[in-house]
Amino acid sequence: MKIRGSFLFVLALAFIVGLIILKYVIREELQAKVDLSRVTYIVCLGDSLTSGVGASTGEDYPSQLARILNIRIKNAGVPGDTTSSALQRLDKDVIHKKPDLVIILLGGNDFIHRVPVNDTKKNIDAMVERLKKEDIPVILVSPIGYYDKVYLEVARKYHVIFIPHVLRGILYNPDLMFDEIHPNSRGYQIMAERIASVFKR
């Protein structure tokens, strides 16, 4: 119980820090849209927020995004993944699948395990750089405001679309959360809608 309370305190503190950072960071996506006419297959790389822990079957965000966009999407989310472990499986689980676009949503487990933010940034940078070398477009998504600033720096460096704090307004809302960390089906729907907003038909 003590560990759970400590975790909630740290998470709340990060939320407050994220709000402060957002005052000094561009909150809107980088000025770009993805042309759906050029995209038929997407891979979503991530952790439990991508795999859909807490959602009903078929209600994870990649599945809901696939229905919104009417596009084939592979869910490459692995619960517990850090940016480091995701980087290690990037070739096998993403590049070898030959997607038209990759959506990266990672960082939550780095935060839980208190990975230095610069290490997280280096891993995200390495993933985006590798995908860009393969000429695969990327949408970079920050899970919480704590990572918005460094993810934005990576997005600007490689000229990829950035979506900040995708859990904004979902965290701490009991109607949208399954537990302290994971959204429920409705929470994942909001995530999918936010990501879908950067696509144009």
Largest sheet: 5 strands, parallel
Number of helices: 9
> Which consecutive residue ranges, at least 5 long each, have pLDDT under 50?
21-30
Tell me, what's the shape? globular
Radius of gyration: 16 Å
* Total individual domains: 1
Topology-level CATH name? Rossmann fold
Q: State the CATH class.
A: Alpha Beta
Oligomer: single chain
Summarize the structure.
With 201 residues, the protein is an alpha/beta fold. It has helices spanning 2-22, 48-51, 61-69, 83-88, 90-93, 108-112, 117-133, 148-158, 185-196; strands spanning 34-35, 41-46, 72-77, 101-105, 138-141, 161-163, 199-200. It has a single domain, classed as 3-Layer(aba) Sandwich (Rossmann fold).
List the helices and strands and how they pair.
Elements: H1 2-22, E1 34-35, E2 41-46, H2 48-51, H3 61-69, E3 72-77, H4 83-88, H5 90-93, E4 101-105, H6 108-112, H7 117-133, E5 138-141, H8 148-158, E6 161-163, H9 185-196, E7 199-200
Parallel strand pairs: 1-7, 2-3, 2-4, 4-5, 5-6
Helix pairs in contact: 3-9, 7-8
Descriptive report:
- The chain is of the alpha/beta class and 201 residues long.
- It has a single domain, classed as 3-Layer(aba) Sandwich (Rossmann fold).
- Helices cover 44% and strands 14% of the residues.
- It is built from nine helices and seven strands; from the N terminus they run αββααβααβααβαβαβ.
- It has helices at residues 2-22, 48-51, 61-69, 83-88, 90-93, 108-112, 117-133, 148-158, 185-196, and strands spanning 34-35, 41-46, 72-77, 101-105, 138-141, 161-163, 199-200.
- The protein has a five-stranded parallel β-sheet with strand order 3-2-4-5-6, with helices on both faces. The chain has a two-stranded parallel ribbon with strand order 1-7.
- Helix 8 (148-158) links the parallel strand 5 and strand 6.
- It starts with a helix and ends with a strand.
